[in-house]
Amino acid sequence: MFYSSSIKAMIDVLSNFNFWSILIAASFIIFIGFIFQRKKLIFADWEKVVVKIILYAALPALALKSFLIDINTDYIWESIFVAILGLIFYTSLTFGSKYFFIGKTKSIQDTLGMSVAFSSAVYFGVMIIKAISPADQQQSIDLYSSLFLIGFWIFMYSAADNIMKKKRYDENEVQNSLLAEKQKFSFMSMLKVFKNPVIIATFIGIFLWLFQLIPGVKVIHINNTYYSISRIDKFIPGLNQVLGILAPLASPLAWFSMGAVLAKSQIKESFQSCLVWWATFVKNIITPLFCVGLFIIFSLLLKITTGKGITSLAFVLCVAIIASPTANTIVGYAIIYNKEPKIASHVGTLTILTSIITIPFWILISSAIGATSLFS
């Protein structure tokens, strides 16, 4: 029974036209960005503008839009578990991934650790799963991804930033390091993360979503249906359209900029480094495997406590998120803080190229596991 249901799930993925379409589309847009950069058809440092558009407009819109849905109390515990899993996963990797690179300098450990811990989650994994899923699952995908990525946004803009800006010294520079000002991870530096527009939009969205649990708030009457007053998309003119236009911008802009990054990088050199290959293996194989293990454990715990496990959709989505290439933000940190920028760029390049194979692989594997009785 397990075998037949797993095989059917894998066949369903492989025979899905949209699955191959989104992979081809992403690859093509990356290629266009590569050509534009190589031919110098775009102005210098244009990617800084694109990053700001993504960070200050597209991603906040996507985060807020994800929570503007009617709350389903039948799945409230699953939603809580998905958010907790995200926090556990990103806490573990933020502070533990450097141990995959024991024996290297502290600087290399920090850079590769962060390169392994954080993915271009929204631009690859989420978009691929949305493309292959039916229309009635789109809102659930947005909700699950937003909940799982709470830990991602918090740690990437706080702990990862502090780790990457921390100065490391070789043995022959120890005396100089004693004179340097020590940088400590303080409570105030942690608070800076809440100035991030994505985090702000996420927490506003969570508040509006959970507000629906209050009795008597469904007073907005539209087309014979009552909505909560927190469903601001239903009664503020144009809001739903604005969010619907801005949110989809994140992926194509990110894919285009990734192509430009590839054009600037030394691809041959990336393929020649054993260390870069090892980091890529950890990022694309070991971390998704860790995610699979965590989800199986928590799904069984949820089944024991509520009688229902985590849905296979949430499981496959989160594994695809983790299997995505290294986040551009981490490469940006390495460049800004001059912390092994070359190695970070090489890992970013190789994870992008190899993820074209590894993301479909993990979607197939997780779909097969998700079709078993371990998940709902």
From TrEMBL:
Membrane topology: Multi-pass membrane protein
Cellular localisation: Membrane
Transmembrane annotation, as ranges: 20-37, 49-69, 75-100, 112-131, 143-160, 198-222, 242-263, 275-301, 313-336, 348-375
GO biological process, one term: transmembrane transport
Keywords: Cell membrane, Membrane, Transmembrane, Transmembrane helix, Transport
GO cellular component, one term: membrane
Domain of life: Bacteria
Full protein name: Malate permease
